[in-house]
Amino acid sequence: VQLVESGGGLVQPGGSLRLSCVASGFAFSQYKMSWYRQAPGKERELVATITRAGGITNYADSAKGRFTISRSDAKSTVYLQMTNLKPEDTAVYYCHPFLTGYWGQGTQVTVSS
């Protein structure tokens, strides 16, 4: 199993980023997918989930109205569109096939002026 996140970077408050995670080594379309994040000194927290075929999405309260999770089963890729970013969104973001033991290396998002 391989999960490769990308799209992170340094952005000013109010800015946007689109994270991508390309998955391989498992039946991607059969899995609920999720994005987690971990800020320095804090526990990893769930940000968003998307069911198989993208039918249902759910978000942490901190992400509602600003983040959008989506997926392309044809590309075995899950996305996280983030808008109106805030300094408290600074973290390493990970994609994760829900309730499995698989994690990518993460992509760093830093929101700072």
Topology:
Layout: E1 2-6, E2 9-11, E3 17-24, E4 33-38, E5 45-50, E6 57-59, E7 67-72, E8 77-82, E9 91-97, E10 107-111
Parallel strand pairs: 2-10
Antiparallel strand pairs: 1-3, 3-8, 4-5, 4-9, 5-6, 7-8, 9-10
Report on the architecture of this protein.
By secondary structure, this protein is an all-beta fold. The chain contains no helices and ten strands. The protein has strands spanning 2-6, 9-11, 17-24, 33-38, 45-50, 57-59, 67-72, 77-82, 91-97, 107-111. A six-stranded mixed sheet has the order 2-10-9-4-5-6, with no helix packed on it. A four-stranded antiparallel sheet has the order 1-3-8-7, with no helix packed on it. The chain starts with a strand and ends with a strand. The mean pLDDT is 96.
Structural class: mainly beta
Side by side, the strands of the main sheet go 2-10-9-4-5-6
Give the N-terminus to C-terminus distance in angstroms.
Answer: 37 Å
Q: Uncertain segments of ≥5 residues (pLDDT<50)?
A: none
Averaged pLDDT: 96
Largest sheet, if any?
6 strands, mixed
Percentage of residues in DSSP E strands: over 45%
Helices, by number, come to 0
What would the principal axes of the Cα set say about the shape? globular
**Range of helix content:** under 10%
Strand elements, count = 10
- The H/E string reads EEEEEEEEEE
Q: Tell me the Rg in angstroms.
A: 13 Å
